[in-house]
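Hi V.,

Quick status before I head out on leave. The structure for the redesign project is tokenized and pasted below; the design run finished overnight.
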């Protein structure tokens, strides 16, 4: 009997600040509505609720400095600068007190969003995947290990497009802390080494068009930069 030979693509890897050292990407989880000012600009309710999680495929990851095709099927592509967590050892039902022991390091991320598709889905109570989990939608900067940067809780979170500043926030504005995010997510799934968690964005998200360059920055970390083909 003939057997269909289907081979999975190679696992994406991310460079770290250590020379010739990389981390493999297992899964990409994202947190929605983690900055109150962004919740307001999206028309949401700022009343505290458990974090909202959604996913992007690992294949959506793009390392910083790349030039990529402009995504299809959208008239409103938007940037979202986000602190990104890299998990080094997994587990289920992790406590907040132990959560930081599971972190390898941190990076700057850009959760690209086809906002028109996301809004259309939300209006129907439908899933967000085609607005969030499309090709090349997770731009990730160089990963800095905890041994180098600690666990950032304060610091500027900014984004610019072609030199025009768009987003200005601070890590201390996060509604859910890194330990709370890890502990909550680990109640839904068993976290694994190489899991990536993008932790939400402050206000100021806006459109990107063909030919533009978007630079996301978090104080103390390397930037996440992407350019879109004209």
């Amino acid at each position: 009997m003939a057997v269909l030979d289907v081979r999975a693509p190679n696992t994406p890897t991310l460079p770290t600040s250590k020379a010739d050292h990389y981390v493999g990407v297992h899964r990409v989880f994202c947190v929605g509505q983690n900055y109150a000012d962004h919740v307001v600009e999206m028309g949401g309710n700022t009343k505290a609720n458990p974090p909202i999680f959604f996913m992007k495929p690992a294949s959506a990851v793009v390392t910083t400095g790349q030039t990529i095709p402009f995504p299809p099927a959208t008239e409103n592509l938007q940037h979202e600068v986000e602190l990104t967590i890299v998990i080094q050892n997994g587990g289920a039902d992790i406590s907040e007190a132990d959560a930081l022991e599971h972190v390898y390091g941190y990076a700057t991320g850009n959760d690209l969003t086809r906002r028109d598709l996301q809004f259309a889905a939300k209006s129907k109570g439908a899933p967000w995947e085609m607005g969030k989990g499309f090709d090349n939608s997770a731009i990730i900067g160089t990963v800095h290990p905890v041994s180098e940067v600690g666990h950032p809780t304060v610091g500027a979170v900014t984004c610019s497009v072609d030199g025009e500043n768009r987003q200005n926030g601070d890590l201390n504005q996060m509604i859910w802390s890194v330990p709370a995010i890890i502990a909550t997510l680990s109640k839904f799934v068993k976290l694994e080494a190489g899991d990536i968690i993008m932790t939400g964005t402050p206000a100021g998200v806006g459109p990107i068009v063909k030919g533009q360059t978007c630079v996301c920055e978090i104080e103390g970390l390397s930037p996440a930069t992407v350019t879109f083909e004209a």
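Above is the designed sequence. The longest helix spans residues 115-123.

G. will cover questions while I'm gone.

Best,
W.
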